[in-house]
Amino acid sequence: MRQGKLFVPPRLSRRFFHVWRRNFLVWRKLAIPSMLGNLADPMSYMLGLGYGLGSLLPQVDGTPYITFLAAGTVCYSTMNSASFEALYSAFSRMHVQKTWDGIMNAPVGLDDIVLAEMLWAAFKSIFTVTAILFVMLGLGISHSPKLVVAWMVLIGAGITFSSIALIFNALAQGYDFFTYYFTLFMTPMMFLSGVFFPLEQLPSAVRAVAAWLPLTTAVALVRPLFMDQWPLEWWRHAVVLVVYAVVAFWIALALTRKRFRG
User: Looking at per-residue confidence, does 31 or 134 come out higher?
Assistant: First the structure.
């Protein structure tokens, strides 16, 4: 297939919803164990570092460390949950189980399937994040009414990270390939995006690069909302997230077309 044909605009229809619903019905049988597994990692960071290490640290910009960490952790959890679903689960359906091939025997196009997988991974991430936010409310970490806005921002972040992960899903030939994504992309971004400490602690050159990472922009939008404040330059951070989401989805779609039609 010619290269130009791969990057034509997405050909989407309402049939994508049926693919999304199929994933939801399968997941519903294991919803509770799945949610508990996704909760364990961020809660460990928040309770262990927030309460344990936080009791030894001064406030960060006048904010208790547990609150500072909670905002970063919920963004990291969004990235982690969306990426895991768009990598391992989507790859299983695409390559191992051949579910996508079966779906395309019906009047459903590949573009609809990729869109459904992206939205499904984003839904899984926000479902987990919602549970985390309720735990935070129960612990009294934040009672800001602006958490509703933070929740909507995290939906956008879930879409962004799902789209990015689908690029690697389209390139992968096996599960081992995803190790590169986690070790070379997600882990460095977790430490460079202000999740655990302010960006001001980084060298200026590193900080200049880190400022444009998608997780950094998500944290910059969500953290002030946890503190009942409006984020500064919110429009710039929002534009960065949107650009990442649109460009990444388009690339993921083109690479997936190449994989199936090349």
Answer: 134
Of 145, 151, 146, nearest to 129 by C-alpha is 151
Strands (DSSP E) contained in 134-206 are: none
Q: If you ran DSSP here, which 8-state letter would residue 174 be given?
A: S
Alpha-carbon 95 to chain mean position: 22
Considering only CA atoms, which of 252, 98, 31 is closest in space to residue 162?
Answer: 252
End-to-end CA distance of the chain: 5
This prediction's pTM: 0.90
Virtual CA dihedral for 25, 27, 32, 36, nearest 10 degrees?
-150
pLDDT in tens, 18-40: 999 999 999 887 777 666 666 66
Q: Could you tell me which residues come within 8 angstroms of residue 218 by beta carbon, excluding any fewer than 6 positions away? A: 75, 78, 79, 153, 154, 157, 160, 193, 237, 241
Look at residue 87 and give its three-state secondary structure. Answer: helix
pLDDT tens-digit map of 230-259:
998 899 999 999 999 999 999 999 999 999
